[in-house]
Amino acid sequence: MRMDRRWFWLIVAMLAALSVCQAGGNLSVHFYKDTCPRVEKIIHEVCAEKIKAAPTTAGGTLRLFFHDCFVEGCDGSVLIAPSGKNDTEREAEINKSLAGDAFDVVIRAKKAVEEKCPGVVSCADVLAIVSRDLVVLTGGPSWPVTKGRRDGRVSNISQVEFNVPDASFKLDQLLHIFESKGLSKEDMVALTGAHTFGFFSL
Ligand code: HEM
Ligand SMILES: *[C@@H]1O[C@H](CO)[C@@H](O)[C@H](O)[C@H]1NC(C)=O
Ligand SMILES: *[C@@H]1O[C@H](CO)[C@@H](O)[C@H](O)[C@H]1NC(C)=O
Ligand SMILES: *[C@@H]1O[C@H](CO)[C@@H](O)[C@H](O)[C@H]1NC(C)=O
Ligand SMILES: *[C@@H]1O[C@H](CO)[C@@H](O)[C@H](O)[C@H]1NC(C)=O
Questions:
Q1: Residue 201: inside a domain, yes or no?
Q2: Which residues of the chain are under the pLDDT cut of 50?
Q3: Domain that holds residue 97
Q4: Which pLDDT score, from 0 to 100, does residue 4 have?
Q5: Ligand 2 atom at minimum distance from 25 CA
Q6: CA–CA separation, 121 vs 46, rounded Å?
Q7: Is the minimum distance from the CB of 158 to ligand 5 under 6 angstroms?
Q8: Which residues neighbour 50 within 8 Å (Cβ) at sequence distance 6 or greater?
Q9: What's the CATH code of the domain at 143?
Q10: Entry pTM
Q11: Which of 18, 36, 68, 76 could bond 151 through an S-S bridge, CB–CB 3.0 to 4.6 Å?
Q12: Per-residue model confidence (pLDDT) at position 197
């Protein structure tokens, strides 16, 4: 794993901004203050254990968070399992490198949170917190995660292709996708700094 501090701070700022933009306001660092005060501690313990067993989980999970945010907002819909013939966003993600460990750590964290505060914390918030914790655990900086995202109920594999940038995309296609999420050229460059970290199978 390789990391460049300068880029990393930019990414952190952008991810924080992205989360706020997409949820339409009312997110707060203290969202679960009364309903699940230990949520961050519970999730951190799960992440610490996971990163010991599988150190490459961090990159895949941050990427999963990015992909979740780009398809219908940061609503956890990338986690929805397919049912019957309806292929969900996850089916596209599962083919991407290390997605297995990324899903696993989020599911473990959600389970641990459910044991203490059943039915309170959204999957979308769990994914946001897990992504931050794994960055911290692999030597990156920390940032406060605002919470209060609502989980989406729609997850359609057909939405992934157009919303999630692919390595073959031309610059104008990339800019168009980021623009459609309310993100500027500068935002795109900063966020792409995430590639200074993680594992690449290409
Ligand atoms: C600008 C458009 C982007 C394109 C075209 C792109 C494309 C890719 C590709 C092709 C890979 C390699 C996947 C593999 O290992 O097979 C990758 C990995 C990765 N991407 Fe991006 N990406 C983009 C933006 C982002 C953003 C905005 C983030 C997060 C803020 C991000 C986070 C990551 C991470 C962390 C990895 C490493 C995953 C791992 O360790 O398994 N990417 N990306
Ligand atoms: C934010 O909170 C205010 C007051 O509690 C509420 O009226 C408003 O609808 C909320 N906005 C969103 C996007 O949930
Ligand atoms: C598949 O999606 C359709 C349309 O959203 C829904 O009516 C149906 O119940 C879904 N089928 C399954 C097996 O989830
Ligand atoms: C994922 O890979 C499997 C086989 O490896 C393939 O059948 C399937 O079409 C792929 N799905 C996507 C969305 O690329
Ligand atoms: C997913 O999207 C495609 C294309 O828009 C549509 O044909 C299909 O019915 C959708 N599936 C579900 C389950 O809504």
A1: no
A2: 1-3, 20-23
A3: 5-194
A4: 54
A5: 13
A6: 15
A7: yes
A8: 57, 101, 104, 105, 108, 134
A9: 1.10.520.10
A10: 0.87
A11: 76
A12: 80
